[in-house]
Amino acid sequence: MDNTKVKLSKGAQEQNAITTARIQQIQSQLDNAPRTGKLKEKVCIVTGVGSLLGIGRAAALTFAHEGAKHLYLLDYDPTNLPDLKSAIEKKYPDVKVTTLQADAADEKAISGLCEQALREEGRLDVFFANAGYASRDSLQDTSVETFMNSMRINALSCFLAVKHGSAAMLKTNPSRGKDASRGSIIMTASAAGLRSGAGSIDYSASKAAVNSIAKNSACQLQKTDIRVNTICPGLIETGMTGTVFEFARQRGSAGKIGQLNPLGRYGVAQEIANAALFLASDDSSYVNGQNIAVDGGLSSSHPVVPGRWA
């Protein structure tokens, strides 16, 4: 590995300091923000919660902060599930937490989890299908197995969330405060699913499929008040992207991460969790069938040299 240090200019150093301060401010949001109860009485499922730096964990904590009644949290790797459960119960003792080690692309597990929510709480209000996988192979090096694995983990898992999550959300239960069908299904797609240049071909194809699932599902679930949307993150520091950040920091070029987008920086999991909260809450009651980019503006433009249009 080339460990050559990259010396940043004074301007770049100042920008890096501003970015670092801004990131720290965002990451401490839950420590300072009041609990507004945006998700009061809502029963929520979140998949892909296992990474300590991940979007799923950040979303689970954010949903708890906003008063979710019961969180059902799933991940394929059970290592960090006890810590997450403990962290939520310690800080938010009014929130019920159930964790499950399972594959988000396993139909039996997903249908069973939706049925468990109905059995225990009588309703399901939010399903955040966040579990995902990213490969890094070039076109010629991508095997059929890698391609299909990306489609299974990224796209099939979302299909199952919509199929079984919507079936649960269609059920009414006046005794539990739900007198009509209603719910919000949120899926983590990617800026890579919007256009080329943000991921490998199999990853990008699977995330484009997720975006399509949202649009088609929203139409098939018309007049049910069940909304289906995707969040399309740009470059976010998570366990999945950790090697990119580690390499840059070893070379001394961390200040250049995310420099190609209009905000000039990378994002963090809390920023995606905030978007998920918006879609989970009634604040987004008229948002449906949308692919919402949360990428610092990366997908807003074709490649261009600033100030030149040709």
TrEMBL record:
Top-level taxon of the source organism: Eukaryota
Claim: Oxidoreductase is one of the keywords in the record: yes
Which molecular function terms from Gene Ontology are attached? oxidoreductase activity
In its keyword annotation, does this UniProt entry include Transport?
Answer: no
Q: What InterPro entries does UniProt report for this protein, alphabetically?
A: NAD(P)-bd_dom_sf (IPR036291), SDR_fam (IPR002347)
Q: Which UniProt keywords apply?
A: Oxidoreductase
- Please give the Gene3D superfamilies that the UniProt record associates with this protein: NAD(P)-binding Rossmann-like Domain
Please state which protein family the record places this protein in. Answer: Belongs to the short-chain dehydrogenases/reductases (SDR) family.
Record's protein name: NAD(P)-binding protein
What is the organism field in this record? Answer: Psilocybe cyanescens
